[in-house]
Amino acid sequence: FTVAILVNNQLGVVNRVTSMFRRRQFNIHSLTVSETHSTEYSRITIQSEGDDVVKQQLINQLYKLPDVSSVKELDQQYSVTRELMLIKMRNDPENRGEIKSAIEAFEGKILDYTKETLTIQMVGDLQKIDNFVNLMKDYEILEICRTGVVSSLFRLCSYQRSYLLDKGIRLLSCVPHIYLLNIYKNTPDRRTQDIV
């Protein structure tokens, strides 16, 4: 699961948040920090693991920290997520064509090209990055550098999302001002599905 933490932009606030993870033995998969639209606040995006109980304990503990303004869980279905990866590959003439074809298929970019190495940039969601890494394991990977989640923003405002979930409506797709909803209607003889 991924949580976005809005904190006061104060010295040592990141250390206090990560120290809480260490004390409570929560594992951190990735952590990114940056200023928001306001210089008074920073946004910490953390990927961790655990069931609903662990997740709720984590959120409760975060709210106890004095510099934490808000904590939100970012559901992958209702948020836009991106990660940046740089991967350095052995530039083997026998495999060069196959690697370049994979880069093109995954919409990546070659940032640096030498006789010995290829440095590739890949941007996308977690699944895309993992799939590309798994594909490159068939060749010789020299180095990998991943940022973790650098952007994870809600596609709906919180009250819209909560209203839909309370009504039992599942969001299928969303673009500005257009929502594709999955609405089930129970009838005496069958269960029908309307797409709005």
Largest sheet: 4 strands, antiparallel
Q: Mind telling me the C-alpha Rg?
A: 21 Å
Low-confidence stretches: 169-196
How are helices and strands ordered from N to C? Answer: EHEEHEEHEEHEHEEE
- Biggest sheet, strands in spatial order? 2-3-1-4
Beta-strand content estimate: 35-45%
Structural class: alpha+beta
Q: Average pLDDT across residues? A: 76
Assembly status: single chain
Strand runs, count: 11
**Into which percent range does the helicity of residues fall?**
25-40%
Distance between the termini: 29 Å
> Helical element count?
5
**Cα shape:** elongated
Question: What would you note in describing this structure?
Answer:
β2 and β3 form a beta hairpin. It is built from 5 helices and 11 strands, in the order βαββαββαββαβαβββ. With 196 residues, it is an alpha+beta fold. A 4-stranded antiparallel beta sheet has the order 2-3-1-4, with helices on one face. Strands 6-7-5-8 form a 4-stranded antiparallel beta sheet. The relative contact order is 0.15.
